[in-house]
Amino acid sequence: MTQQVPSTEPELAGVRNFRDVGGLPTADGRRVRHGVLFRSGHLAHATEEDTAFLSSLGLHTIFDFRNAADQKLEGPDVELPGVRNVNLPLSDPADGAEFWRMVRDGDLDQLRSILADGKGAHRMIASYRTTIRQRTAEHSRVLHALAEDSVPVLMHCAAGKDRAGLSVAVTLLALGVERDAIFDDYLKSNATHRRYKVRRSSSSASAYSPEVMELLSPLFDARAEYLSAALETVEETWGGVDPYLETALGITPGVRERLRERLLD
């Protein structure tokens, strides 16, 4: 059964990291409307109760940012009647395939070789920067869809913190949400009941030893330095949020105003 956690947020049995992004304040004193923008991890393992809850949200569209390798590993999302499902991969299955195979299958020495001495965090920072620079077409498509008709919307990837986290952050930037509030929402993915369940090929105790889990933590944490790197990339590449939205994503003032009308109180 669905359990309740603080703030009456539903803790779904088979869906990690679900939350309503409503309530976040904008710089001009408005707030993100409740019930229009949701985020989560993948929906492949949703229970009947989870599915009933998700169906009650009145969703128009689900954006699934997983790639084909993710979907093969976890399975397809559950089908929600009347909801449009859009698969919009924000990462290439071939990119880092050997790295992620090592994360699942590698022994301690192999994990040390790819993750120790800050290499894990460095990889995540590089990934966030690359996503902002190279996935402008995908982020543009999401924002234009929200401005036109795709609300209420649920955005998710595998864990719901990186690809979905960046897509939500870009959406919040377009809405004029305060930076501190964007970071606060992003960092909520670290809560114990929201975290992605790490899966490794071996079920032995050594596969999940404290040292292994410490080495893996940069990959499965939401860290402020990651989101900061993404926002720094916006500034360094385009000179600020407004030119990024207009030049890179094609979000005109008119589109931005429609977004605000749909998503803000």
Helix/strand layout:
Blueprint: E1 3-5, E2 9-11, E3 19-20, E4 37-40, H1 48-55, E5 61-64, H2 68-74, E6 84-87, H3 97-105, H4 108-115, H5 119-134, H6 136-148, E7 153-156, H7 163-175, H8 179-187, H9 210-220, H10 224-238, H11 241-248, H12 253-263
Parallel strand pairs: 4-7, 5-6, 5-7
Antiparallel strand pairs: 1-2, 3-4
Helix pairs in contact: 4-9, 5-9, 5-10, 6-12, 7-8, 10-11
Describe the 3D structure.
With 265 residues, this protein is an alpha/beta fold. It has one domain: Protein-Tyrosine Phosphatase, Chain A (Alpha-Beta Complex), CATH 3.90.190.10. The chain has 12 helices and 7 strands. The chain has helices spanning 48-55, 68-74, 97-105, 108-115, 119-134, 136-148, 163-175, 179-187, 210-220, 224-238, 241-248, 253-263; strands at residues 3-5, 9-11, 19-20, 37-40, 61-64, 84-87, 153-156. The strands form 2 sheets. It has a 5-stranded mixed beta sheet with strand order 3-4-7-5-6, covered by helices on one side. Strands 1-2 form a two-stranded antiparallel sheet. Helix 6 (136-148) packs across helix 12 and helix 10 crosses helix 11. Residues 1-8 have low confidence and may be disordered.
The CATH class label is: Alpha Beta
- Find the CATH superfamily: Protein tyrosine phosphatase superfamily
According to CATH, what is the topology?
Answer: Protein-Tyrosine Phosphatase, Chain A
Whole-angstrom Rg:
18 Å
Tell me how many strands there are: 7
> Which whole number gives the mean pLDDT?
90
The largest pleated sheet is described as: 5 strands, mixed
Looking at the chains present, what oligomeric state does this protein adopt? single chain
Strand order of the largest sheet: 3-4-7-5-6
Helical content band: 40-55%
Q: What are the low-pLDDT stretches, counting only 5+ consecutive residues below 50?
A: 1-8
- Label the overall shape: globular
Kindly, what is the distance between the CA atoms of the first and last residues, rounded to a whole number of angstroms?
32 Å
Number of domains: 1
**Category from helices, strands and their pairing:** alpha/beta
**Pattern of helices and strands:** EEEEHEHEHHHHEHHHHHH
Which CATH-level-2 architecture? Alpha-Beta Complex
Taken as a percent bin, the fraction of beta residues is 5-15%
